[in-house]
């Protein structure tokens, strides 16, 4: 009987220890706030900096889709001197969560210690280092621009909400994203025959289809501008040949 009572006592102590450890770890893993308790100094400095920011021009062209964009380096060349002058700094780092998700943290710091932060998931289209680095650099640029309230000169994505207001698309057949009803676009779209041709080329290559949607800011392939069709299908064919082992096809 004494041994039984002693065992119960030991189990109770073990349970108390486990509960204490769980509580301790939950507190240590508590989510970091998105901003400091007070941001008056940071807000004043940011207001001053925003009075000096100028629209950042595009400086590069995407080799795959011939789209203009502003790279990470030019963004920081424009904003870094102004941030430093106003005792501000941008700090960016990645965190790997317990469920394997990579989170990019972008923090705006003030010399007073005040801060505010933005976070986003990094979701590369393919699982390789080059694709990850590309997705990370793009997210770093976009997060810094958003956090600081900086604008890009002549940004084609600033379309008065036209893309966001497109009618909801319905799938009319299983397969890639090309099999969708056409939406009301403000330009001449590719024909149904051209959409079908792209659909045949992209069959089995959903990542390329997704990349086309992203590059041309469209909801489905049938919404592609007609002026972009020949270039797009040529690039798609080159990428597919490259994946099949023809390394000369993307030159």
Q: How is this structure best described in words?
A:
The protein is an alpha+beta fold and 251 residues long. Helix content is 43%, strand content 12%. The chain has helices spanning 2-28, 40-50, 72-85, 129-148, 192-202, 206-215, 229-243, and strands at 60-61, 68-69, 88-96, 102-110, 115-121. A hairpin with a 6-residue loop joins β1 and β2. α5 packs parallel to α7. The radius of gyration is 26 Å and the shape is flat. The termini are far apart.
Write the layout of secondary structure elements.
Blueprint: H1 2-28, H2 40-50, E1 60-61, E2 68-69, H3 72-85, E3 88-96, E4 102-110, E5 115-121, H4 129-148, H5 192-202, H6 206-215, H7 229-243
Antiparallel strand pairs: 1-2, 3-4, 4-5
Features:
5 strands; single chain; 12% strand; 2 domains; three-stranded antiparallel beta sheet; alpha+beta; two-stranded antiparallel ribbon; 43% helix; 7 helices; 251 residues
């Amino acid at each position: 009987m004494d041994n039984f009572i002693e065992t119960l006592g030991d189990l109770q102590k073990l349970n108390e220890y486990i509960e204490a450890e769980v509580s301790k770890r939950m507190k240590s893993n508590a989510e970091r706030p998105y901003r400091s308790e007070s941001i008056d100094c940071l807000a004043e400095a940011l207001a001053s900096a925003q009075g000096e920011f100028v629209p950042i021009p595009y400086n590069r062209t995407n080799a795959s889709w011939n789209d203009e964009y502003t790279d990470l380096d030019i963004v920081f060349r424009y904003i870094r001197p102004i941030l430093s002058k106003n005792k501000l700094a941008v700090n960016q780092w990645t965190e790997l969560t317990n469920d394997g998700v990579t989170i990019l943290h972008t923090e705006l710091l003030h010399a007073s210690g005040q801060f505010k932060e933005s976070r986003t998931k990094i979701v590369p289209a393919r699982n390789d280092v080059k694709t990850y680095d590309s997705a990370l650099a793009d997210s770093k640029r976009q997060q810094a621009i958003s956090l600081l309230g900086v604008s890009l000169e002549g940004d084609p994505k600033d379309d008065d909400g036209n893309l966001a207001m497109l009618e909801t698309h319905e799938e009319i057949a299983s397969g890639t994203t090309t099999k969708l009803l056409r939406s009301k676009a403000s330009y001449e779209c590719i024909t149904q025959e051209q959409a079908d041709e792209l659909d045949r080329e992209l069959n089995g290559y959903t990542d390329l289809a997704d990349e086309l949607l992203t590059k041309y800011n469209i909801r489905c392939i049938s919404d592609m501008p007609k002026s972009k069709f020949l270039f797009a299908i040529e690039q798609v064919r080159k990428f597919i040949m490259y994946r099949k082992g023809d390394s000369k096809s993307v030159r």
